[in-house]
Amino acid sequence: MANSTGNVQYQIIPSDLRIFGLSALQRKMSITRLWRSYQGLMAKKPWTVQIITAGSLMGVGDIISQQLIERRGWNKHNIIRTTKMMSIGFFFVGPVIGGWYRVLDRFVIGTTKSTALRKMLLDQACFAPCFLGTFLGIYGVLNGLTVEENVAKLKRDYADTLITNYYLWPAVQIANFYFIPLQHRLAVVQIVAVAWNSYLSWKANKM
C-alpha cells in the first residue's frame, strides 16, 4: 500500500512482514556465523572437533531412536543409554573412523572418480564389516552382556546390520570421498548417519 503527499511516495510495509524478514535474516546470519566458527575450530583443532561432532551426533541418533522409533516418551527416556552412545562416539567412532579416513588418503592418493570408487570399495569391503562387529560387541559389553550373550547377539544381529549398511553407505561414501575435503568427511558422514545411528542404537539395544 502506498500513500502520497505531493510528489513523495511512501511505501507502507506491514509490521508482521518486516518482523518476518528481519527474523529470517537473523537466522541466516546466525547459521553463517556458526558455520564459520565451526570451520575456524576445524582449522585449529580438527581431530578434537571431529571427535566431539561424532559423539554429539551419536547422542542425537539415540534420542531419535528412543523417541521416534521406540516412542518411549520423555518421561521414560533412558539417559544412561544416550550417554553410552555418546561415549562410544567420543572414544570409538570418532577416533576410529577419523583415523581410517587418514589411512585411506595416505594409501589411495588422488581425487578422481576412480580413486573415490577404490576408497569406497576398501571402506565397505574391509572397514565396515570390522567396524560394525566391533561396535555391536562394545555396546553389548556396556550393556552388561556376558561373553556368551554377546556372541549370541552378534550371531543374530550382525549379518542383518551389515546388509542394511550396504543399502545406505556405498553411495554416500563415493560422494564423500569425491566431493568432501578430508577434514570434513567425518562430520558429513555423521550428519548423514543421524538416521543410521538411530538404527544402530535400536539394533544394539534390541534384546
TrEMBL record:
GO terms for molecular function: channel activity. It is a multi-pass membrane protein. It is found in: Membrane. One of its GO terms (cellular component) is membrane. The chain crosses the membrane at residues 85-101, 121-142. PANTHER family: PEROXISOMAL MEMBRANE PROTEIN 2, PXMP2 MPV17, PROTEIN MPV17. This is Mitochondrial inner membrane protein Mpv17. It comes from Tachysurus vachellii (Darkbarbel catfish).
